[in-house]
TrEMBL record:
Residues 6-102 form the Cytochrome b5 heme-binding domain. InterPro entries: Cyt_B5-like_heme/steroid-bd (IPR001199), Cyt_B5-like_heme/steroid_sf (IPR036400), MAPR/NEUFC/NENF-like (IPR050577). Gene3D superfamilies: Cytochrome b5-like heme/steroid binding domain. GO terms for cellular component: endomembrane system; membrane. Belongs to the cytochrome b5 family. MAPR subfamily. PANTHER family: MEMBRANE-ASSOCIATED PROGESTERONE RECEPTOR COMPONENT-RELATED, NEUFERRICIN. This is Cytochrome b5 heme-binding domain-containing protein.
């Protein structure tokens, strides 16, 4: 069942102020009954600001001011859209779905607005980018880092860094985005064929990848740079 249809003023009545009424909140226009979590969502609770409204944006931005508690999705990142999807999944799993909110995401009949199709497309792109990033992290794990006042930042590689355990150590290199901005330190495999089709056909592992640069003053094969 599609459940009830709410206007913004309808939903506001379920903000936890009246102990005789259930507590509702909305994410992406979907309304959930969070009464069983009233210690969090009820009056005086740490998350009461979400109750009685659609605060989609604040779920992923962390801006819990009146200005930030809204359903505007313009300017959100791909990862933000994944975050919103995860919050919706959480409320479907742990709380009760009640209905839909008339407004940005649903019309007066409870039918989805065109913007939801665009969100679905953004979400697919977001998961594709996350997968791409996971593949990159597996091929080029992050370096271990340590900072001291005397030495500054020290980067080093071993058989586990960046959360990736492997059978090779690698050497630290600066990894850049395509636009030339620095991304992070990466541990780079030095032997075997390249992981990237665009790299030269050699036995230097991923050292020839075009978005890598050596650290100044660091020996070519050193596993530690500063």
């Amino acid at each position: 069942p599609d459940g009830q249809i709410f206007t913004a003023s309808d939903l506001k009545q379920y903000n936890g102020d009246d102990p005789q009424k259930p507590i509702y909140l909305a994410v992406l226009g979907q309304v959930f009954d969070v009464t069983k979590g009233k210690e969090h969502y009820g009056k005086g609770g740490g998350y009461n600001f979400f109750s009685g409204r659609d605060g989609t944006r604040a779920f992923v931005t962390g801006d819990f001011s009146e200005k930030g508690l809204n359903d505007e999705i313009k300017g959100l990142s791909h990862e933000n859209f994944i975050g919103i999807k995860e919050w919706i999944d959480f409320y479907h799993k742990d709380y009760s779905y009640v209905g839909k909110l008339i407004g940005r995401f649903y019309n007066a009949k409870g039918e989805p607005a065109p913007i939801l199709s665009k969100i679905k497309t953004r979400l697919s792109k977001a998961y594709a980018l996350r997968k791409e990033a996971e593949n990159e992290n597996f091929k080029m794990p992050g370096c271990n880092t340590h900072w001291t006042k005397e030495e500054g930042t020290v980067y080093w590689c071993e058989k586990k860094s960046g959360g990736i355990e492997r059978d090779w150590v690698g050497v630290p290199r600066k990894l850049f985005y395509e636009n030339g901005k620095f991304k992070r330190c990466a541990c780079i495999r030095t032997k075997g064929p390249s992981s990237f089709e665009s790299s030269k056909n050699s036995n230097n592992g991923d050292l020839d990848y075009h978005l890598l640069k050596e650290y100044d003053g660091c020996a070519f094969a050193s596993t530690t740079c500063s």
